[in-house]
Amino acid sequence: MHIHIIAVSGTGMGALAGLLSELGHHVSGSDIAFDPPMGPALERWGVRCLPGFDARNLEPTPDLTVIGNVCRKDNPEVVAVIERGLPYTHIAGALADFVLGNCSPLVVAGTHGKTTTTAMAAHLLEASGFAPGFLIGGLPKNFPRSFRAPQAGKPRLAMGDRPLRKPPFVIEGDEYDTAFYEKSAKFLHYRPEVAVLTSIEHDHVDIYPDLESYLNAFERFVALVPEGGLIIANAADAHVVRVVDRHARAEVAWFALEGEDTHGKPPHWLAAPSTSDAAGTRFDLYAGGVACGRLALTVPGRHNLKNALAALGAAAQGYGARIADIGPALAQFEGVRRRQDLIGTPRGSFVYDDFAHHPTAVRETLAALRSKHPGARLVAVFEPRSATACRRMHQEDYTGAFEAADEVVLAPLGRSNLPPEQALDVTRLARDLRERGKPAQAVADVDAIVDYLASTVSPGSVVALLSNGSFGGIHGKLLERLAR
Prior knowledge:
The chain has helices at 11-22, 38-44, 76-83, 91-98, 114-127, 211-224, 238-247, 302-319, 323-331, 359-372, 395-401, 426-435, 446-456, 474-483, and strands at 2-6, 26-31, 48-51, 64-67, 88-89, 104-109, 133-135, 147-148, 156-157, 163-164, 168-173, 177-179, 182-185, 194-197, 230-234, 251-257, 269-277, 280-287, 290-297, 341-344, 350-354, 378-382, 407-410, 440-442, 462-466. It is α/β, with parallel strands linked by helices. It folds into 3 domains: 2-89, 3-Layer(aba) Sandwich (Rossmann fold); 95-331, UDP-N-acetylmuramoyl-L-alanine:D-glutamate ligase (3-Layer(aba) Sandwich); 341-483, Mur ligase, C-terminal domain (Protein-Tyrosine Phosphatase, Chain A, Alpha-Beta Complex), CATH 3.90.190.
């Protein structure tokens, strides 16, 4: 088919374009820009790139158009598609039509840890010979791309020892809405046979105005897993326990770290941390109360240990992977770009890029970097950019989120359309941090931040750049200045 994608340059839509091209379709895509790395990658994947949004991009007429969820109804290509009565769908519909019906979907959902857990699960299944397909919302370092079509590998061993010949397809289950004309969560379209639920904490307030509406999306997701399926769920998360208890039809396997409050749920998958240092974490793994040996994980942080535990459970219990295969593979997991991603070491300093923006993610990321660099000066540079991060709802939570940092530098809000009474007050946040004894300042712009860091960062210091966006190009600017 000729498939045209409107707004193709985003991480998810670009990966979909590459996946459809790999499946043998002729794919074109339009967007306002095709900057690196996505633009060159699309061309390598055989996608015809069309700059700008214009009805003429629909010539020759495509068999199907995929409308990205960043598109509004007044997009000129969207208008032309609808007026001409052309077939169209969204990213979730395209995956359902072209991929998910021919595989066994493993869907990783949750407020935190989705991308890393998805990449881990795909890596562990790959090491076990299952040759999984996957679509990951970031670039996994163990694979050359963030997508792959399902391949012929080992049959899945389903619960009840009934072999299913469909190969696994690992997909990050996003709770964000699907398109301007389809306001349901993306993960409700992904037909999960095995599901992972990492955590639930109110997020995406532009879509879910309150906690109950957010919980409702996860309740519907959990109910989708069939009776013959499997749910790997975080027993230490009270919201996860509530949602799963009330709505699960499938078998549930709980996971937790030793010592966590599991809300009365006996964890089938349990990790007992042994040692943690700059080289990573060693832990003892238990499955159903049986010791499975000591394993190693190189990506730091307790949150990543929980991500690993969920991925291990999904691969082993959901698809029959052997611990003897996936244990060594876990130690070889390199992580995902923009997740504690060391992007440079100019003049002996360490500069990390991370996607963290929710207070919980900020706290866990900084704690992980502290464990990796226990004696270093750790500077957190934070840009509030997401719809949730820019709002005042987490004003107090951010005050405690930077505990592991030695200093905090705050950038202006990444959104300027919020009423002052609803917006996060970064000046107040800096003041509250200073009152707690934490050096902190709100800085006017990216160039001023770079100037300040260039004059204060010394060899051995650690800088954590935290933003879910491009952060005004600070990454390249800072590396270049520090190198000088």
